[in-house]
């Protein structure tokens, strides 16, 4: 055993002589106070060596690279480490194992250079050891529902967007359901949406932008999109024709990250006192006139499914600037309850047993009072932990998407006579989700032939989601057709359904993948790049 003064001396000596096999130190029960920070700094300099601390005959491995950042305080040694220090060291040992696993199992595949013929996916998770470390940290907490990681994510995500609140949910589709349901809340008085009210939207997109309207017994009113201009968004010239005395909202997505004409849509909503819900699931980081999408409407949503701009596995968020909407959103998410206490807390309002609500007896426990017909769509703290690591990288992810899209756009510029190439909406800087291509009417190429050829070359393709929702089985029946109305011809929607497809530009694409994709598209039409 050695004493505290000898502790630093031995570490310093071993570092000086270049020990890289780990450093073993035994702490005397009488050592008193030991400041581990300078010791760990020295060990860190020695090729990131491991420090072994033996306390009460128990050997603990410490990764000093992480211990320095989280254990700058003096550690008190009294035969054994105090609880906080012990937790820090034990967590550090887990971090060492996680990092080693990542390096051994995941990093080699991520660093493997691209070879033509390797699979090029349209999207996917992009991660390193930081996501795994955050997940490991939450695992050790073993707080299985929303907790400290969820709270931190909601705070940081709202701050990133510049909104008053963000509420985590278990998917982007759930986010859309909660966002629209919140607009039916009695808290909104005469502006609350009611059964039979109409919502203007498009049929060219993902179904769960529209299904929340149906699930709340309201009526989607479909208008067409634009295709020839390469934006694939709602045709704002058709909005007036879609308006009726039952119109209460517009709910629409920014197609593959390309913002809608927000000048026209926001002005229309203000003129007619309509709610605007932005489905921002494919557009996180896109801007319009320099302002982030998702901050123009009354409510907006994001998805954190692996193909999206960032991920937590499954997950989504609803966000807005109105605190009145915050209460409705969180109530619908959390069983419809009237109480706003966070998980594990009681009596936040101070009125838990002294209110009379509904026809309940006076003083009925406020934790079991329900003001909405809600759901349970919360996220777990483990998912939120992953999201925090991803949030640290979101700016680089967005930059990579833009760079990949631009590179592919430039390399396909010679094919504009064959394809309608995508174009950003005027005043917009999209955070692209994918690269849309529509085969021109003058081309003899079919979409089926095109995607089969690309897939044969191991390049993954996708349609513009549901194509035309009105032709999907759940609406293409006599009953289904009674659930919506169309306010215009959907000729461009049908065109996207038959002639449009897209390929990926996500940040996980390796050097050479964009060039190979462009090469194969040239090969498809019998040309050289």
How does this structure look, described?
With 529 residues, this protein is an alpha/beta fold. The chain folds into four domains: 4-105, no CATH class; 132-338 and 373-391, Aspartate Aminotransferase, domain 2; 339-370, no CATH class; 394-524, Aspartate Aminotransferase, domain 1 (Alpha-Beta Complex). 36% of the residues lie in helices and 15% in strands. It has helices spanning 4-16, 36-45, 64-70, 83-111, 129-141, 148-161, 172-182, 211-215, 239-242, 262-272, 323-333, 381-391, 394-411, 447-456, 478-481, 491-499, 513-524; strands at residues 23-26, 32-34, 50-55, 58-63, 75-77, 165-169, 198-202, 219-223, 247-253, 275-279, 287-288, 291-292, 299-303, 316-320, 419-420, 428-429, 435-439, 485-486, 500-503. Strands 6-14-13-10-9-7-8-18 form an eight-stranded mixed sheet, sandwiched between helices. A three-stranded mixed sheet has the order 1-3-4. A three-stranded antiparallel sheet has the order 12-11-16, with no helix packed on it. Helix 1 runs parallel beside helix 2, helix 2 runs antiparallel to helix 3 (64-70) and helix 13 runs parallel beside helix 17 (513-524). The protein starts with a helix and ends in a 5-residue tail after the last helix.
